[in-house]
Amino acid sequence: MTQPLFSSTSLSSALLDNLASLGYHTMTDIQAQTLPLILAGKDVIGQGKTGSGKTAAFSLGLLHNLNVKRFRVQALVVCPTRELADQVAVEIRKLARAVHNIKVLALCGGAPMGPQIGSLEHGAHIIVGTPGRIEEHLRKGRLSLDEVNTFVLDEADRMLEMGFEESLQCIIDHCPTARQNLLFSATYPPKIEQLAQHIMKDAAKVTVEATH
Ligand code: ADP
Ligand code: MG
Question: Considering the entire predicted model, what is its pTM?
Protein backbone atom coordinates (compact mmCIF):
# COMPACT_ATOMS: atom_id res chain seq x y z
CA MET A 1 0.00 0.00 0.00
CA THR A 2 1.30 3.50 -0.82
CA GLN A 3 1.79 5.59 2.27
CA PRO A 4 0.43 9.14 2.29
CA LEU A 5 2.85 12.06 2.14
CA PHE A 6 3.36 14.61 4.91
CA SER A 7 2.72 17.22 2.22
CA SER A 8 -0.92 16.06 2.06
CA THR A 9 -1.46 17.51 5.56
CA SER A 10 -1.97 21.11 6.68
CA LEU A 11 1.55 21.38 8.17
CA SER A 12 3.34 24.66 7.44
CA SER A 13 5.75 24.79 4.52
CA ALA A 14 8.60 25.43 6.97
CA LEU A 15 7.84 22.16 8.80
CA LEU A 16 7.32 20.30 5.51
CA ASP A 17 10.65 21.53 4.10
CA ASN A 18 12.42 20.46 7.26
CA LEU A 19 10.75 17.02 7.18
CA ALA A 20 11.94 16.58 3.59
CA SER A 21 15.48 17.55 4.59
CA LEU A 22 15.32 14.88 7.32
CA GLY A 23 14.23 12.31 4.74
CA TYR A 24 10.71 12.07 6.16
CA HIS A 25 8.46 12.02 3.08
CA THR A 26 5.80 9.41 3.66
CA MET A 27 3.91 9.03 6.91
CA THR A 28 3.92 5.81 8.88
CA ASP A 29 0.50 4.25 9.50
CA ILE A 30 0.06 5.78 12.94
CA GLN A 31 1.13 9.19 11.61
CA ALA A 32 -1.23 8.93 8.63
CA GLN A 33 -4.12 8.03 10.90
CA THR A 34 -3.48 10.44 13.76
CA LEU A 35 -1.80 13.53 12.26
CA PRO A 36 -4.82 14.87 10.33
CA LEU A 37 -6.92 14.53 13.52
CA ILE A 38 -4.20 16.15 15.61
CA LEU A 39 -3.82 19.04 13.15
CA ALA A 40 -7.60 19.48 13.26
CA GLY A 41 -7.24 20.11 17.00
CA LYS A 42 -8.86 16.90 18.23
CA ASP A 43 -7.93 14.95 21.34
CA VAL A 44 -6.31 11.74 20.10
CA ILE A 45 -5.44 8.38 21.63
CA GLY A 46 -2.83 6.61 19.52
CA GLN A 47 -1.96 3.01 20.12
CA GLY A 48 0.88 1.48 18.18
CA LYS A 49 3.92 -0.59 18.91
CA THR A 50 7.44 0.67 19.49
CA GLY A 51 9.05 2.09 16.38
CA SER A 52 5.79 2.99 14.68
CA GLY A 53 6.61 6.72 14.62
CA LYS A 54 4.46 8.01 17.47
CA THR A 55 6.96 10.71 18.50
CA ALA A 56 6.77 12.62 15.22
CA ALA A 57 2.96 12.36 15.24
CA PHE A 58 2.54 14.26 18.51
CA SER A 59 5.62 16.45 18.03
CA LEU A 60 4.39 17.80 14.70
CA GLY A 61 1.03 18.43 16.36
CA LEU A 62 2.49 20.48 19.18
CA LEU A 63 4.80 22.39 16.81
CA HIS A 64 1.77 23.19 14.64
CA ASN A 65 0.02 24.73 17.67
CA LEU A 66 3.06 26.70 18.83
CA ASN A 67 3.36 30.47 18.74
CA VAL A 68 7.14 30.99 18.72
CA LYS A 69 6.80 34.69 19.42
CA ARG A 70 5.18 33.93 22.74
CA PHE A 71 7.94 32.76 25.07
CA ARG A 72 5.79 30.72 27.44
CA VAL A 73 5.41 26.97 27.99
CA GLN A 74 2.79 26.01 25.41
CA ALA A 75 3.37 22.29 25.14
CA LEU A 76 4.12 19.65 27.74
CA VAL A 77 5.20 16.09 26.96
CA VAL A 78 5.30 13.65 29.86
CA CYS A 79 7.32 10.44 29.43
CA PRO A 80 7.95 7.52 31.82
CA THR A 81 11.77 7.63 31.89
CA ARG A 82 14.63 10.05 31.50
CA GLU A 83 15.95 8.14 28.47
CA LEU A 84 12.62 8.37 26.67
CA ALA A 85 12.19 12.04 27.56
CA ASP A 86 15.68 12.81 26.25
CA GLN A 87 14.93 10.95 23.00
CA VAL A 88 11.68 12.87 22.57
CA ALA A 89 13.42 16.19 23.25
CA VAL A 90 16.04 15.34 20.59
CA GLU A 91 13.32 14.44 18.06
CA ILE A 92 11.33 17.62 18.75
CA ARG A 93 14.47 19.76 18.35
CA LYS A 94 15.17 18.00 15.04
CA LEU A 95 11.62 18.52 13.77
CA ALA A 96 11.63 22.14 15.00
CA ARG A 97 14.87 23.07 13.25
CA ALA A 98 12.96 24.90 10.51
CA VAL A 99 11.32 27.20 13.01
CA HIS A 100 13.87 29.48 14.60
CA ASN A 101 14.47 29.95 18.29
CA ILE A 102 12.23 27.27 19.70
CA LYS A 103 13.37 26.40 23.20
CA VAL A 104 12.78 22.80 24.31
CA LEU A 105 13.60 22.05 27.94
CA ALA A 106 13.98 18.55 29.40
CA LEU A 107 12.99 18.15 33.06
CA CYS A 108 13.89 14.64 34.14
CA GLY A 109 14.34 12.91 37.44
CA GLY A 110 17.90 11.78 38.12
CA ALA A 111 19.31 14.95 36.55
CA PRO A 112 20.79 17.64 38.84
CA MET A 113 18.28 20.21 40.09
CA GLY A 114 20.45 23.33 39.84
CA PRO A 115 20.72 23.58 36.05
CA GLN A 116 17.00 22.75 35.67
CA ILE A 117 16.05 25.59 38.01
CA GLY A 118 18.33 27.95 36.05
CA SER A 119 16.81 26.84 32.73
CA LEU A 120 13.29 27.30 34.09
CA GLU A 121 14.15 30.87 35.03
CA HIS A 122 15.21 31.48 31.41
CA GLY A 123 11.97 29.98 30.09
CA ALA A 124 10.93 27.56 27.35
CA HIS A 125 8.25 26.97 24.71
CA ILE A 126 8.13 23.20 25.17
CA ILE A 127 8.81 21.03 28.21
CA VAL A 128 9.54 17.31 28.00
CA GLY A 129 10.02 15.45 31.22
CA THR A 130 9.22 12.73 33.70
CA PRO A 131 6.18 12.97 36.01
CA GLY A 132 7.90 13.15 39.41
CA ARG A 133 10.33 15.92 38.46
CA ILE A 134 7.68 18.00 36.69
CA GLU A 135 5.46 17.65 39.77
CA GLU A 136 8.29 18.76 42.02
CA HIS A 137 8.93 21.93 39.97
CA LEU A 138 5.19 22.66 39.98
CA ARG A 139 4.88 22.24 43.73
CA LYS A 140 7.85 24.56 44.29
CA GLY A 141 6.22 27.18 42.04
CA ARG A 142 9.07 27.15 39.53
CA LEU A 143 6.98 26.12 36.54
CA SER A 144 3.72 27.51 35.22
CA LEU A 145 1.57 25.47 32.85
CA ASP A 146 -1.10 28.19 32.55
CA GLU A 147 -0.49 28.62 28.82
CA VAL A 148 -0.18 24.96 27.82
CA ASN A 149 -2.27 24.30 24.72
CA THR A 150 -0.96 20.80 23.94
CA PHE A 151 -0.62 18.13 26.63
CA VAL A 152 1.01 14.85 25.62
CA LEU A 153 1.24 11.60 27.56
CA ASP A 154 3.81 9.40 25.83
CA GLU A 155 4.04 5.70 26.71
CA ALA A 156 1.09 6.20 29.02
CA ASP A 157 0.85 2.48 29.80
CA ARG A 158 4.38 2.45 31.20
CA MET A 159 3.74 5.55 33.28
CA LEU A 160 0.80 3.88 35.00
CA GLU A 161 2.79 0.65 35.47
CA MET A 162 5.47 2.73 37.18
CA GLY A 163 2.94 4.22 39.60
CA PHE A 164 2.96 7.80 38.30
CA GLU A 165 -0.81 8.28 38.60
CA GLU A 166 -0.70 10.86 41.39
CA SER A 167 2.04 12.90 39.74
CA LEU A 168 0.08 12.88 36.50
CA GLN A 169 -3.01 14.07 38.33
CA CYS A 170 -1.05 16.94 39.88
CA ILE A 171 0.32 17.93 36.46
CA ILE A 172 -3.14 17.80 34.86
CA ASP A 173 -4.54 19.96 37.67
CA HIS A 174 -1.98 22.64 36.75
CA CYS A 175 -2.92 22.70 33.04
CA PRO A 176 -5.69 24.83 31.61
CA THR A 177 -8.86 22.84 30.95
CA ALA A 178 -9.03 24.16 27.36
CA ARG A 179 -6.16 22.24 25.82
CA GLN A 180 -5.51 19.54 23.26
CA ASN A 181 -4.73 16.14 24.79
CA LEU A 182 -2.67 13.52 22.96
CA LEU A 183 -2.19 10.14 24.58
CA PHE A 184 0.16 7.59 23.05
CA SER A 185 0.66 4.08 24.28
CA ALA A 186 1.92 0.73 23.04
CA THR A 187 -0.90 -1.11 24.84
CA TYR A 188 -4.38 -0.09 25.96
CA PRO A 189 -5.27 -1.77 29.26
CA PRO A 190 -8.41 -0.72 31.23
CA LYS A 191 -6.38 1.65 33.45
CA ILE A 192 -5.34 3.66 30.38
CA GLU A 193 -8.91 3.76 29.18
CA GLN A 194 -9.95 5.16 32.58
CA LEU A 195 -7.18 7.77 32.45
CA ALA A 196 -8.17 8.75 28.91
CA GLN A 197 -11.83 9.10 29.91
CA HIS A 198 -10.77 11.19 32.88
CA ILE A 199 -8.70 13.71 30.92
CA MET A 200 -10.30 13.79 27.47
CA LYS A 201 -13.66 14.41 25.95
CA ASP A 202 -14.62 12.91 22.60
CA ALA A 203 -11.13 11.66 21.87
CA ALA A 204 -10.52 9.88 18.60
CA LYS A 205 -8.93 6.48 19.17
CA VAL A 206 -6.54 5.09 16.58
CA THR A 207 -5.02 1.62 16.81
CA VAL A 208 -2.28 0.49 14.47
CA GLU A 209 -1.03 -3.06 14.73
CA ALA A 210 1.11 -3.25 11.57
CA THR A 211 4.87 -2.74 11.56
CA HIS A 212 4.71 0.61 9.79
P1 ADP B 1 7.67 5.05 18.64
O2 ADP B 1 7.59 6.23 19.56
O3 ADP B 1 6.35 4.72 18.02
O4 ADP B 1 8.28 3.86 19.30
P5 ADP B 1 9.54 6.62 17.17
O6 ADP B 1 8.71 7.82 17.11
O7 ADP B 1 10.66 6.60 18.12
O8 ADP B 1 8.62 5.36 17.42
O9 ADP B 1 10.07 6.35 15.67
C10 ADP B 1 10.97 5.32 15.34
C11 ADP B 1 11.99 5.81 14.31
O12 ADP B 1 11.39 6.08 13.06
C13 ADP B 1 12.72 7.06 14.72
O14 ADP B 1 14.10 6.87 14.49
C15 ADP B 1 12.20 8.14 13.77
O16 ADP B 1 13.18 9.10 13.50
C17 ADP B 1 11.81 7.34 12.54
N18 ADP B 1 10.65 7.91 11.82
C19 ADP B 1 9.46 8.25 12.37
N20 ADP B 1 8.60 8.66 11.42
C21 ADP B 1 9.24 8.59 10.25
C22 ADP B 1 8.88 8.88 8.88
N23 ADP B 1 7.64 9.30 8.58
N24 ADP B 1 9.79 8.69 7.91
C25 ADP B 1 11.02 8.24 8.24
N26 ADP B 1 11.44 7.94 9.49
C27 ADP B 1 10.57 8.10 10.49
MG1 MG C 1 7.78 6.47 21.57
Answer: 0.96
